[in-house]
Amino acid sequence: MGRRRSKLPTPPFAGPATPRYFSCVHLVHVNRGLCTIRNPSALCTTHRITTTVRAGAAHAAMSLRRLLGFSAGVSGRLRRSLSTGATSRPPWVLFEQAAAAGGSRLRSSALIVEPPGFSQLSVLALNVNTSDVPDPDSDVLQILCGKVCSASGDGLVLVTVYDMCAPAPILEKQGAHHVRQMITEIVPEHYPDTTRFLCNPLTGQVARLPDIGDGPTQLLCGPHMGILTQAHRGHGPPDRLAVAELQGNRILRFLSDTGGWEIAVTAPCQLPLARRVYFERGQHDQEAIAFGGRLWWVDLTWGAISADPFSDQPEPGSSSYPARVEAPTKRLLRTVEEGEALRRGALGRYRRMGVSDGRLRYVEVWDREPFVLSVFALDDQGSAWTLEHRLVLSRLWADGDHPWLPLPEKTTPQISALDPLNGNVIYLSVGEHIVVVDMNREEVIGSSPKNGSSSCVTCVLPPWLDSSRIPAAGNQ
Asked: Which pTM was predicted?
């Protein structure tokens, strides 16, 4: 159980002796699979990011053992693996949600970067469902938008690629090149084709999942799908997997055992009326989470619902947030419309749930001074939350000696991620920087300039991932 604090202490600004740090850039080229970047500048720009992070292979090994449920013997091998391979790649990464899509070579690539830098995936366009390519001299462009939707607890990543058309009037022709007006919208009459892939980011293996319906039906399915894996031995490379999304009292799921999509009807789940309608629409605030042999779908205004997607009749469980959790801003709750704007906009920036050091944790930060950051942990029964840490960020960096200070007007700290191996560490987006805070030590332990988006998905990279294969799924 975590410890409570009755009083918010002023953090010490005279820290301990300088810890060990190392800088590294990891570029992973993978040789199998179905993806590569055709034109990075068209959708997103890939950067090599060098970041400074704390070296801690032994702690990472122990945390990863708890996260994956290893035995003591396996833990020893894992610790040796992380200790000897700490300079080759990190034990976990933050994947930027935007994924590039393009290219025709049979090659997949992932740019692996030490957190707090964002790693990036590129997905091959060769096996993406696409409509007819617009005439190059027309005022319409085809855009392939990739999104990292979620990750399993052992490193597999679900990527969705949308084929969209956007109006881009030609302003000037310069031979084979056209100068076009900036894209600000998509063609409303064009229903994006959707293709889903499972990806091993280290080996480059990609499995395309079967399609779900046609036209608008595809858009109604799968915006918040999660991945859950199982290993027959209880640990190690997975032998089966499920990709699933909760939609009211049913689960849309793909099982590697059957190789197809199906609907599983769940047992009734008691929810507040407003949240029941919300879940029936399949709407969730963040990516699905794999934890404790279940998938968790999150509603940041209320709590989360979990279920085992492998079960013949999944039994949903629910967990609401502690009553003392306060909304980031109360002035938006005067009407239903304003409340919806709060949920869709603010909550995703100021609240987050995730797996950290083998427990499910919930983090929130105030959207106003003094920017109080709080961390709660769910008990083993999944019924109660314990306040573990509470920290006043404005005091934490009151000395002003930080590259993100002074904060521009209306700039507030926002939550990017929880460290999956260390329950004390939170990653924040502050202005143009990702800032790493150790809640237990009450200090900033790292930072990195952002390269665009603050949206990311946490992905653990266990030692066996670079030699394992995705369980039989879809089209390999």
From this structure: 0.76
